[in-house]
User: Fold Beta-galactosidase from Paraburkholderia ginsengiterrae.
Amino acid sequence: MGVPAPLPGVAQSFSFSRDGKHFLLDGKPFQIRSGEMHPARIPVEYWRHRILMAKAMGMNCIAIYVMWNYHEASPGVFDFHSGNRDIGAFIQLCQQEGMWVLLRPGPYICAEWDLGGIPSYLLSYPDIELRTDSARDSRYMSAVAGYIRELGPRIKPLLVSHGGPILMIQIENEFGSYARNPAYLEELRQLWLQEGIQGPFYTEDGIKQLEQNRTTVTGGAIALSNGNAEQIAAVRRKFPTVPAMAGEVYPGWLTHWGDETFKGTDVDLSSTLDAFMQRKQSFNLYVIHGGTSFGFYAGANVDDRSGEYQPDITSYDYAAPISEQGAATSKYMRYRGIIAGYLSTPLPEPPQPVPTISRTGSDALMPARWASIWDNLPAALPAAQTVHPQAFEMYGQTSGFVLYRKRLPGYRGGVLDIAQVHDYATVFVGGQYVGGVSRALMPERCAQPLNVMRHAPLEVPRVPLPPDGDVLLEILVEGMGRINYGHAMIDRKGILEPVTLQDVEGSSDTLIGWEVFLLPMDSAFIANLRPVCANPNKGGLFFKATLRLDALGDTYLDMRDWTKGVVWVNGHNLGRYWNIGPQRRLYCPAPWLKQGDNEIVIFDLHQLEAKPIELACTLS
Assistant:
């Protein structure tokens, strides 16, 4: 079995056989052996390395998601150039390395990514409907049309019919798990056609959802989530005119904060891969390399049975064959051997591993207290916007934190009811921390010392009244990942309902007239922090360390002795840490480091004293 590769600038044809049995490349049957990775989760400097890792495992194709909200954070402002956002450059790299591409541009992708890739600015409409046709919600589809108009011209020259490596474009994602709406899927297809992109197209669904909701598009191939050889055969019987492939074959699984351990480590796809290769069936490993949900982009789920909110960890290692750091795992070597056994030409050797850095014991970093969020507040929003607390999206904020502040005249203590906090809040009365509220379930060992409740009324103690008789109530809210799957995706962040305070005599008041401070914690915010800390005993502190390096390498910052917060290295947001685990270490890629002094900034919601931070070579 040879390895046909894309020829730059040479138009080729990719199509389906008339009987739907085969994918055809230049008229000949072609097996797609795809491994999925996401440019948004990989530093641009490592793109080629990860592509070559997939090629050396026996893949001939790379499947990629395009995260719409990674490219359009605010309405009409697109970024397809900075950092790792140049999708065209990634696709061209695939072609340079002899790899084909399956493009999965959404508009919805799931992917354990914030709001499934849909821009959160759409949630500023109180009655918005997502993932539906123009007749149901023209605002959503108008935004989708703008996205496809922007992406389409970047994609068209890279189609196989124009001499590029893109074989197929997916229409939406797993829509059968959400609804049955043929008009919506056809409207999406028409938007691509209007850009001069004729396909080929395909859809992705679980086999039961596909059969129930018939979520296919005209002339489009079918990809199966969690598919295997038997399911491909079953779908071919029910949909005999188009080919089918296993579109998401899971070598691991996603992990949530609070899980006991990393998920998917015990998965073995050996027999599944052997069957694909023996029958020459097409497949895509989701994911061959997961990478990292840097910054605030990790998504969340809702447990089907309990309804619990389950935010995803920062790492997207996924127990994939290629680790978060880009290393070949034991799975990688095992699967590479299986695939190689069916190929007529030897596989290339994997690229050299990236060097790593470790520092333990006395060589560990020792940060120092540096600044306080309370001494770095921006101007409050106008009072007209803040009669009641509103969600982040209503203030035009995508992610980070928001501080809600209210003056309480004649305060005497009582019970505070913050009915809807999305997703984690620390509460202060008179400058003193009195407890927290967490939407996600926390182990008691972590919740109890911090007096963190789960949407339960929070008893707030009496504090000495200042001379003016007014006590400050401050609620600092962290928005964590938006739900990325299912029917609970309208997941706004912040305080979503009025806050009430029941005083010691049982009288309850709805608190109105708030000061609101937007704290996006973006690179500009961090760069402009003032090194002031007037009250070192009030949680919400920044710490800083200097990492001096003579040689560069990848590393992991071990945050096991810290509580809950975010880490920046030289201005790059590594993502969230949380002591409920199971993730304890945050991945820092070598390209974000430099020889000499490197600035490490930590923001912790609870920590008042700095603790050492060791550097490690692996996630765990």
